[in-house]
Amino acid sequence: MTPLTNVAKLARAVDRLGRDTNMLVEGAELYREHGEQENTYVGLVRQIVYYSSGIGGQTALNIERGFSGLTGKGLTSNILNAYCFICNNFNFASGLDEIILTGFSRGAFTVRCLANFIDK
């Protein structure tokens, strides 16, 4: 069985949006440095989901929502909140954890900034 593609990983992540869950991995292969197949892992993988309502989504006031949407007010706090969530839940020692970031429109910009922050 071939490793899951990024598209398959994204589809599984979005399918479970808004809820933590355990998901069945049906055949992700592990490879050694030289590309030899080591074994096939089949089992449960815990998936932890974080959702942010995004820039301008935290308020019920139309004026404040519009101002936040136009100016990007709240971007820094959204990035830092998501980064803190990742730091509290990501298992750095295991080497098996993955981070899947998705966003649409202003949310896409937010997750690109977050990915850059994680990379540095």
What are the SSEs and their pairings?
Elements: H1 6-15, E1 21-31, E2 37-47, H2 62-71, H3 75-89, H4 106-119
Antiparallel strand pairs: 1-2
Task: Tell me what you see in this structure.
There is one protein chain. The protein is of the alpha+beta class and 120 residues long. A hairpin with a 5-residue loop joins strand 1 and strand 2. Helix 3 packs across helix 4. The chain has two domains: 49 residues, no CATH class; 70 residues, no CATH class. The protein contains four helices and two strands; from the N terminus they run H-E-E-H-H-H. It has a two-stranded antiparallel ribbon. 41% of the residues lie in helices and 18% in strands.
- What is the count of distinct domains? 2
Q: Element order, helices and strands?
A: HEEHHH
Low-pLDDT segments, ≥5 res: 22-42
Strand-residue proportion:
15-25%
Could you tell me the mean pLDDT?
A: 70
Percent helix: 40-55%
What class do helices, strands and sheet pairing give?
alpha+beta
Query: Multimeric state of these chains?
Result: single chain
